Amino acid sequence: MSSAKPHTLSETTPAGLLDGYQVPEFFCELMNRKGPMPEALNRVRSRLAAMDVAELRKRTASAEAQLYSMGITFTVYSNREAIDRILPFDAIPRIMTAQEWSHIERGVQQRIQALNLFLHDIYHDRKVIQDGIIPAELVLNNPNYCEAMVGFKVPGGVYVHVNGTDLIRDMDGRFLILEDNARTPSGVSYVIENRHMMLRLMPDLASGLPVRSVEEYGPRLHQTLCEVAPEGVMNPQVVLLSPGIYNSAYFEHVFLSREMGVPLVEGRDLFVENHRVYMRTTMGPKPVHSIYRRLNDEFLDPLAFNPDSLLGVPGLIDAYRRGNVTLANALGTGVADDKAVYAYMPRIIRYYLGEDPILDSVETHICAEEEGLAYTLANLDKLVVKPVGESGGYGLLIGPQASKAELDEFRQKLQKDPSNYISQPVIGLSVTPTLCPDGVEARHVDLRPFALTGRSVWVLPGGLSRVALRKGSLVVNSSQGGGSKDTWVMAS
Amino acid sequence: MMELAHFPLLSRYAECMMWLARYMERMENLARLLEVTETFVRDAEGQTAWDSIVSINSDENLFSRLHPDGTSADAVPFYVTEIGNPGSIRSMAHAIRENARAVRPLVSTELWTHLNVFTRWLLELDETSVQTSSLSGLCGRIRQECQTHYGIAEGTLYRDQAWLFYRLGKHLEGCDQITRLVDIRYHMLLPQGEVPGSAIDITQWTSVLRSAAAHHSFRRLRPVTVTPANIVGFLLKNEGFPRSLSSNLRQIDDVLSLLANHAGLYGLCAPLQECLDELRTTLSDQTAGDIILRGLHDYMSWVQTRLASTQNAIADTFWPSVPTAVTQVALQVQE
Lengths: 492, 335
Prior knowledge:
- The complex is a heterodimer.
- Chain A is an alpha+beta fold.
- Among the domains of chain A are: 101-170 and 213-353, 3-Layer(aba) Sandwich (Rossmann fold), CATH 3.40.50.11290; 363-425, Dna Ligase, domain 1 (2-Layer Sandwich).
- Chain A is 29% helix and 23% strand.
- Chain A is built from 14 helices and 23 strands.
- In chain A, strand 4 and strand 5 form a beta hairpin.
- In chain A, helix 4 (98-122) packs across helix 12 (345-353).
- In chain B, helix 1 runs antiparallel to helix 9.
- Chain B is globular.
- Classes of the chains: A alpha+beta, B mainly alpha.
């Protein structure tokens, strides 16, 4: 949320929105494409130029007030208090050409095919291990490896039904995969709500431009869940399983169940009898066939996993293993999106598909390996070091931005538990013009496209563009002060 | 009405819709009561008789526990901001909010957005909001926000079972509120030893009508004399007045018929409908005069007991703690 700001030059002298913009050395999505400027971008630029900062600030404030009133929020808990926060919204859209998008789309589809084949393999024949593509301990000793999945045939061979792929662009504008999110990725509701907000806020900015719609996601998600329902069920009952109203992503759960037109259930709304799952309704128990679960593996079933979990459904895993209900995503997918396994993904893609990866990965050093650790320790001040088991941008070190004391401290942590870390070179992430307290400035941005996999892989055009609102920051996560933008994919 | 049987409703949703509506109705009534009491209700010394609200809500024990040396004026914060009182505006706002969050996937975004802003405002109320000078403005706004809520619900809620449970909650609470009001005010206002029909304090009785938003509706009947009996009769038995006991009972009956006939819940609704028929018959078979002669307080207590058991029967029927046998229902689904 931007705070009110005393007068700045750009506010007192009415000037075009982009006049004071300092084009940085990085690839800029709107202002420095390091090549010919696509026509759509030129049109958006000239429309933005006709607006001034004060006007944009006014519209942004109104957008953020609306998001707050509509409860498009995530909940942060501090002490005993629950605070509703909006994801800060930036009104300057991030634009992708049809060509860029088709490259991403194909790359994401390829990646998800490989992820699903990999998961099937490690829970069955483990050829990928026998053939020496990936070390056995990385898979079998992985905390997210799920014994209950061994030998179990999931409907349609699909493990990752919903996936979020984190992409970044380097100095040259090349797209790189930074991370896979194959468990319960969140953020898609903001993609769609950002579009609605953008249309209210800047109704004329997109006029005449072939911006691809994001409205299909809900029906597509429902269709995906029907496609993977247990065989022989004519009209499968789909539900979304949420931890409930106190979960920080509850808004997204509400949003998705509404968009699909299916009940949002909590564990206590379901029960298992004769190895089948039912929901409690006013008309008595009704069978449930497909569950889009937004609950982590370990909370799903107190009989199978954490016996203290009150969120899950006793007997659910047994019903699942008997093929009476489908869980999306499947259990044990966390092995595939692990940060250490990530390093092997190019090889995994070649192994299963016999193709080169369409989207490149970031060069990754695995500290569990002697060579990787030595390289990382020697170049700590030049690298980004990440704990393998964390998400949300927690616990990472950005070498070039760290003080000597921070580097020393991290060096010790690293030596104590090397297998918990990977390291990567610092990528000069692309930037995009963003409204900041001092005017419109360059801020780093990433992209999380969302893909649905039933009978085939479908990628929602666009994705969540997350912006690091702090100057110079490379961390875009909402938990670390990130905001978001509407993402426009051009149809032509 | 469309075929509701195709839209099963989660028991938890039904329960939350019902309580959302009950709390909203209860809060609106409390705001009216506070507003009218401040303006019109005085004790023998001319002081505002706040403690009458404590009696209406049967909160004497809780009130004296939280305010051992409390004066009548402590009733205002007790009913607006006191978190220890589940019946305060703030506590009810919290309950409304939690229920609304639970049914958010089901209700219109307009309904949710209004509730989100409204309840957030109520939860931020503090002691300064309950100073007497601003109380009537506060209550007026609460009343209006409640009415805005009903308008959005009426205009945007999908007419499925959830809507029916919402109405069930609203009108059960409506019955409860009107019987409490009539019961307590009647006994407070009838001087000791007086018989019905004797001269009454018109200002005080008018305040009873005002608390129920019935003042001008009642005027339109142009009663020859204003007696406790014809005011009681209006509040309990008038079919045209939407907040009367009989109007609320009629609405409940209507909802139960819809649930029985369209949602395929005939077997489940029958015992509830019997209970309701009994309530409606006893009311229509007696004049207000009869009721007063036979004992208004006893009758009101009886009605309240019946309403409570109806509420319990609804819970046992639609959100039982142990689900009914799966096999039977599985068979029904096949049909």
